[in-house]
Design goal:
Elements: H1 3-14, E1 26-29, E2 31-39, E3 51-53, E4 56-64, E5 70-78, E6 84-93, E7 99-107, E8 144-153, E9 156-163, E10 187-196, E11 199-209, E12 215-227, E13 230-241, E14 249-259, E15 264-275, E16 282-293, E17 296-306, E18 315-325
Antiparallel strand pairs: 1-4, 2-3, 2-18, 4-5, 5-6, 6-7, 7-8, 8-9, 9-10, 10-11, 11-12, 12-13, 13-14, 14-15, 15-16, 16-17, 17-18
């Protein structure tokens, strides 16, 4: 008997989808309307309008395999500029064996998923600050296309990420590899999260490949503590470039949030980034609030940043109101 052949045949049979895997996809989306103002030396003053609507929706579907595993897929579709897919994710849920996925654009597994774990009412404190001329900096593991694996082992949430080229974009199809950027070294990272009562501790490490053949070493360590309606947190992100003359970054992040009631939450957060060799630290702070009622939510933030990109004399301020409706 050909044992090898029998084993491969059995494996192939176990991965055949049942009749429930019919290939049907469902469409989801929502309505978002925002109003944004920008001020300061790094502001953009040529907006045609400060109002904007979200122009994205998602199609998704799933099916169960004969071995009990579940395969699911989702495609994000945008109506901005040239309409098309802006993100696709293929996921294999293996139950107690964990979850394996491939994201073709913006995977946040491993250390990338720990970019900012501070308590917040709306979004991270440095979001939306800086522009193309004055780029805001932050020590963090880059996200991008690649494979991710997650599981819980001994109460610890484990997340792994691997990519053969984080700079790749969505301009690829089956059998047509990405050719939009130069080849880069592979990137990999691990993130760990452990919660015990009111305390959550997280951390991880990773390496990010570069087109010049050098690597950036990343590390993150942080914790949050919840007491009553309030949660406080602190984390430190570190980034070391192995290239001669490379830029090393260190970002400290603070956050505190408070649940006023079941519908209203408020928060305050800070992002402070030090760049090696720079005499000026980039500092950002943000006050936020979020209110929900039924299928509608209102998010507000007022954020400002000084020494954008560690450049003295630059500053940026933004105020945003976002109204979302779920159907």
């Amino acid at each position: 008997m050909n044992i090898k052949k029998v084993g491969l045949t059995a494996l192939a049979g176990s991965l055949v989808a049942t009749s429930a895997f019919a290939g049907a996809l469902s469409v989801s989306g929502g309505a978002k309307l925002s109003y944004v103002t920008k001020e300061g030396t790094a502001s953009t003053n040529n907006e045609s309008s400060r109002f904007a609507m979200d122009q994205e929706m998602s199609v998704s579907g799933s099916g169960e395999l004969d071995n009990g595993f579940t395969v699911s897929v989702s495609h994000g579709i945008t109506g901005m500029n040239n309409a098309g897919s802006d993100s696709s994710v293929l996921t294999l849920d293996m139950g107690d064996m964990g979850v394996l996925s491939y994201d073709d654009t913006d995977g946040h597994g491993g250390l990338a998923g720990l970019e900012d774990k501070m308590p917040m009412a709306y979004e991270q404190a440095n979001d939306g600050l800086g522009n193309a001329s004055n780029i805001a900096v932050m020590a963090k593991m880059s996200s991008g296309q690649g494979f991710a694996y997650s599981n819980t082992v001994g109460g610890i949430a484990l997340s792994l990420q691997y990519s053969d080229g984080l700079g790749a974009t969505t301009k690829r199809t089956d059998g047509n590899p990405d050719k939009t950027v130069a080849s880069t070294n592979s990137s990999s990272s691990i993130g760990l999260t452990y919660s015990m009562d009111a305390i959550t501790v997280f951390g991880g490490t990773g390496t990010e490949g570069q087109a010049d053949g050098n690597e950036i070493d990343h590390a993150t360590l942080g914790a949050t503590y919840a007491f009553g309606p309030a949660t406080i947190g602190y984390q430190l992100n570190d980034e070391d470039d192995s290239a001669a003359g490379g830029t090393d970054l260190e970002t400290e992040i603070y956050g505190i949030s408070f649940m006023v009631n079941d519908n209203l939450s408020i928060s305050y957060g800070e992002h402070n980034t030090d760049t090696a060799g720079s005499a000026t630290d980039q500092e950002a702070e943000s006050v936020q609030a979020s209110y929900s009622m039924g299928g509608m939510s209102i998010n507000l933030k007022d954020s400002e940043m000084s020494a954008v990109g560690n450049t003295a004399g630059t500053n940026h301020e933004t105020t945003e109101i976002l109204v979302t409706f779920a159907f």
